[in-house]
Design brief:
With about 300 residues, the chain is an alpha/beta fold. The chain has two domains: about 100 residues, ATPase, nucleotide binding domain (Nucleotidyltransferase, domain 5), CATH 3.30.420.40; about 180 residues, Nucleotidyltransferase, domain 5 (2-Layer Sandwich), CATH 3.30.420.40. It is built from twelve helices and ten strands. It has a five-stranded mixed beta sheet. Strands 8-7-6-9-10 form a five-stranded mixed beta sheet. A hairpin with a 4-residue loop joins strand 7 and strand 8. The longest helix is centred in the last third of the chain and has 20 residues.
C-alpha cells in the first residue's frame, strides 16, 4: 500500500495529514510546533518535521519507519529555491519519503481549492499568492508581514512607547490614558513589572510566535469593550492586507475569490472596516470580491503537490 503526506508549516504551528492510495485520510496532526527554518534554524526545523511525521504515522497505525510514496511540504519561509533544496536534502536523508517537494506556505491552500483566485495569509505574518503566480509579501517581520499578528503587536508596542516618551509622531497620536488598556494587556501577557521590561522579549529572549500572541488578547479586549486603540490597530491591519491585493490587482480577474488563511481572519469584524474601505477607495479593476475559507487543512493541498511532483 502506498501512503502520501502533506505538511503545512507556519510561523506558529505545523499541520500534517497522511492519506492512502485511495485518498482516504488516515491521520492528522494539526498543532505541531513552528517549522519556520528562518526562525529556528534548518537543523531544528528538519528535526521537528521528522518528529511530526513519525507522530502522524503512529496515529495512523503505521510503523514510524514507514517510507511515504511522496511528501509535499508547504513551509513558512519557503520562498527561496536554494534553501528549499537544502531542506529537501536534509529531510530525504531521514528516509521518510521516496519523493519530496518543498514550497512556500501559500501554495498549499491554493492547491487545496484547485488553484484559483488568490490566497491571502494573515496569521503570525502575512503573504499573498495568486493562482497565476503573482505575489506580494512573505518577507518576514524584519522587512514586512504587514497586517499580520506580529505586525499588530509591534505597532501597538511602538504606540505605547511613543506615548511614554510623549513622542507625537503622526502614526501614534494617542495619550497614555488612551493606551492604558492595551498597555495593561502587555504587562499581563508578558508578565512585566513595567513596560520597559518588554525589551527582554524583543531582544534577549525574542520569540516571534510568542510576541505575536499578544494580538489575540488585544482582539478579545477590542471585541469586548470596543477599545478605540484596538479598533485602530485592526483597521490599520485590515488596510495593510487590502494593499496586498491592490499590489497584484493588474493580474486579477474582475470577480475575485480571496482564500483567507490564518488565525487573524477570526477577527474579521475588526479588520473589515480598514480592509473593505481601502479596496473601495483604491481598487480600479476588481468588480466583485468573495472571501472564502478552507473546510479541510491546507496540508491536503501540500499532499496534492507532493503526489503531482512524484508522478
Amino acid at each position: 500500500m502506498f501512503y502520501y503526506g502533506g505538511v503545512e508549516g507556519g510561523g506558529t504551528k505545523t499541520s500534517l495529514v497522511i492519506y492512502d492510495a485511495n485518498a482516504k485520510e488516515l491521520s492528522r496532526v494539526l498543532d505541531g510546533p513552528s517549522t519556520n527554518f528562518f526562525l529556528i534554524g534548518k537543523e531544528e526545523a528538519v528535526k521537528r518535521l521528522v518528529e511530526i511525521i513519525k507522530e502522524c504515522l503512529k496515529k495512523a497505525g503505521l510503523p514510524i519507519n514507514t517510507t511515504l510514496e511522496s511528501l509535499g511540504l508547504c513551509l513558512s519561509g519557503g520562498e527561496n529555491e536554494k534553501t528549499n533544496e537544502d531542506i529537501k536534502s536534509m529531510i530525504m536523508s531521514h528516509g521518510v519519503a521516496k519523493s519530496l517537494i518543498v514550497r512556500s506556505d501559500t501554495l498549499g491552500p491554493l492547491a487545496t481549492i484547485g488553484n484559483k483566485g488568490l490566497v491571502l495569509i494573515a496569521g503570525t505574518g502575512s503573504n499573498l499568492l495568486t493562482a497565476s503566480g503573482a505575489r506580494c509579501g512573505g518577507w518576514g517581520s524584519f522587512i514586512g508581514d504587514e497586517g499580520g499578528a506580529h505586525w499588530i503587536a509591534q505597532l501597538a508596542t511602538t504606540w505605547i512607547f511613543h506615548s511614554e516618551d510623549n513622542f507625537r509622531h503622526k502614526i501614534s497620536p494617542f495619550s497614555k490614558d488612551q493606551l492604558f488598556p492595551i498597555k495593561s494587556i502587555f504587562l499581563e501577557y508578558f508578565k512585566l513589572s513595567e513596560i520597559s521590561d518588554i525589551l527582554t522579549h524583543c531582544y534577549d529572549s525574542y520569540s516571534k510566535s510568542h510576541y505575536a500572541g499578544v494580538t489575540k488578547l488585544i482582539a478579545e479586549l477590542t471585541a469586548r469593550t470596543n477599545d478605540p486603540i484596538g479598533r485602530r490597530l485592526f483597521s490599520e491591519a485590515g488596510s495593510a492586507l487590502a494593499h496586498h491585493i491592490l499590489a497584484v490587482e493588474d493580474s486579477l480577474e474582475l470577480d475575485l475569490d480571496v482564500l483567507c488563511v490564518g488565525s487573524l481572519w477570526l477577527s474579521w469584524e475588526l479588520l473589515m472596516e480598514g480592509f473593505m474601505g481601502t479596496l473601495e477607495r483604491h481598487a480600479t479593476k476588481i468588480k466583485s470580491l468573495r472571501l472564502i475559507s478552507l473546510k479541510e487543512p491546507s496540508a491536503l493541498g501540500a499532499a496534492y503537490l507532493g503526489q503531482w511532483k512524484s508522478e
